[in-house]
């Protein structure tokens, strides 16, 4: 059997004019695709991976890499921002290889299966939610070993109708999954990087240690992994981390969990293993401000934790309450202070553009960011992603410009009642300038450049590419 080709399409294909930016962009691979490839291989289905997004492949190179394998099946993992490019890839593949069947999974198809199938006729099958077991069931049906109508989580065409089967139960024991198929990545780990200046020493890799989020934030999409918090055991993770260190020389990990610190006992056991394991690895994670305390943070530091990103979202308590974040600004200040005292970098994740946003709440966010001692911030525009409560609330309203290709948190697509998008964009620039023009962040980044040969190399490469473009 020819290999099943799994593809991670990008939000946008890179143009030669912007290639000088590539060294500064995070390019860690899709963990979902790596898990699917490992499961396929374990079940006897040969798999190949085309990491178009991470490697910055052009459209033509992506399609050529797929067709080179002469696949019977192509699997595309799609976010809302990448689904149009996924459909473009599907159309090009089917034009040259009409017998190839295109399968799509990920958060977008899970949230909007029928609308996506109607809009993109080159998609043959979809998988809702958690994909590993459902993909195997679907392939068995397509190979004639079971009835398609009985494949849970499958989406398919039945004449003019779109058939959407009931959802499959989530995997209870994540430890039953094989390790992600890092060996199927071309150029791993050399060609894959964490975001510029977000780690002290590479090479880096990403991991996810849990699935599901029990919180109720109105802006968060939980359609793929649900509300039930499930996690890999500390023994599974320790074995995987040790493998990455031995096999690939990985020196830094980026945990991509929504809530890495949600279950304290498991985190404590994992940190104890890492602290005593002598692997000399650093790592980053995301955490809620109400899930940490000084004792836990000191243990995380001993285990190699280098930076924690906290989802702060806003400097307005009124906004936090309206989006049901479930935290207070006092908890944010306390968590950041404890984190810095433990010797760990603190990053704040903020959004602006909530429906209730006003000039006053924007001013509160600006003031709050200036008041707490964060090392770094990430600022985005609130984006009503399909599958979120806020999407269901604003869909079809005149304030919301539902443009899938621009739904990447970098564009103002939802206009608040009291502000215009130009006003929001102006506030965005003001917040970024106010934070990064302070001496603290600047000196911090200079220190990282001095200590990190890999980050210095990426800076030099970006400057060289820019000079070549100018020349």
Give a short synopsis of this structure.
The chain is α/β, with parallel strands linked by helices.
Features:
471 residues; alpha/beta; Rossmann fold; TIM Barrel; globular
Q: How would you sum up this structure, described in words?
A:
The chain has helices at residues 31-42, 52-55, 59-67, 83-96, 107-111, 113-119, 132-142, 234-248, 264-276, 294-302, 317-322, 329-341, 359-371, 389-394, 421-436, 439-451, 453-470, and strands at 4-7, 47-50, 73-77, 101-105, 125-127, 154-158, 161-164, 204-207, 210-211, 230-231, 252-255, 282-287, 305-313, 345-352, 376-381. With 471 residues, it is an alpha/beta fold. It folds into 3 domains: 4-164, Cobalamin-binding domain (Rossmann fold, 3-Layer(aba) Sandwich), CATH 3.40.50; 194-437, Alpha-Beta Barrel (TIM Barrel), CATH 3.20.20; 439-471. A 7-stranded mixed β-sheet has the order 2-1-3-4-5-6-7, with helices on both faces. Helix 8 (234-248) packs parallel to helix 9.
Across the major sheet, the strand order is 2-1-3-4-5-6-7
Count of discrete alpha- or pi-helical segments spanning 4 or more residues: 17
Radius of gyration: 22 Å
Mean pLDDT: 94
Q: In CATH terms, what is the fold-level topology of the largest domain?
A: TIM Barrel
CATH architecture level-2 label of the largest domain:
Alpha-Beta Barrel
Number of separate structural domains: 3
Helix percentage? 25-40%
Unreliable residue runs: none
Largest sheet: 7 strands, mixed
β-strand number: 15
Q: Gap between N and C termini, in Å? A: 49 Å
What gross morphology would you assign? globular
Name of the CATH superfamily of the largest domain: Aldolase class I
